Amino acid sequence: MAKKSRKPYPSKKPYTESRTSKRKIEALQKEQKALELRIGGAPYRIIGEALGYADPSGAAKAVYRALDRIRSEIRESADQYIQLQLERLDKMLLGVWPEAVKGRYGAIDRVLKIEERRAKLLGLDAATELLVDWRAKLEEEGISASAVFEEMVSHIMEEIEKAKGKRG
Predict the structure, then answer these.
(1) What is the pLDDT of residues 142-163, one digit of tens each?
(2) 96-105 contacts: CB < 8 A, separation 24 or more?
(3) How far apart are CA 85 and CA 118, in angstroms?
(4) For 121-143, what is each residue's pLDDT tens digit?
(5) What is the sign, positive or negative, of the torsion defined by CA atoms of 67, 72, 118, 84?
(6) How far apart are CA 60 and CA 136, in angstroms?
(7) What separation in angstroms does the CA of 58 have from each of 29, 30, 50, 132?
């Protein structure tokens, strides 16, 4: 006779409360009220007393949760905007690409402008621009970047020598 295999106990799924439950809605409203009071300058102790939190840290946590929700919504909106802009750029690129690959200079310039805009939206050129910018500023002022660097190194070496002299 074959041995019967036992079925494992069903896994217990954690209870997740509906976003539209009465308790959840009331908690969100309470957090929003805590944020409004904090924006108005109320200290966490007063917010806690006014809204029935056990202590000031409960009020602070409520304010932080409300702020986190706002940050999340802003990030989501920004992501949606970027996605929309990228889709528009794709459509523009499709329109000029056939002429660009034929070597038409005007179309090539348009492609480059579209790609520059895409890189800016995605933040791909930010570090390079920052690095180039400080050097360009020095050059605009007629100052050699390498001379500034050498002066900084020289100053640091002098400070090291002074520190050695004080110790020994």
Answers:
(1) 878 778 878 888 888 888 888 8
(2) none
(3) 8
(4) 888 876 655 555 666 777 777 87
(5) negative
(6) 46
(7) 15, 11, 12, 48
Taking a C-beta distance cutoff of 8 angstroms, is the pair 63, 31 a contact? yes
For residue 35, CA distances in Å to 24, 32, 53, 56, 133 come to: 17, 5, 13, 13, 40
Q: Phi/psi of residue 52, each to 5°?
A: 85, 25
Q: Spell out the residues 6+ positions from residue 12 whose beta carbon is closer than 8 angstroms to its own.
A: none
- Helix, strand or coil for residue 123? coil
Give the tokens for residue 2: 């074959």
Instruction: Tokens for 33, please give them.
Output: 């009220």
Quick one: which of 33, 13, 30 has its CA closest to 22? 30
- The CA distance from 99 to 93, in Å, is 10
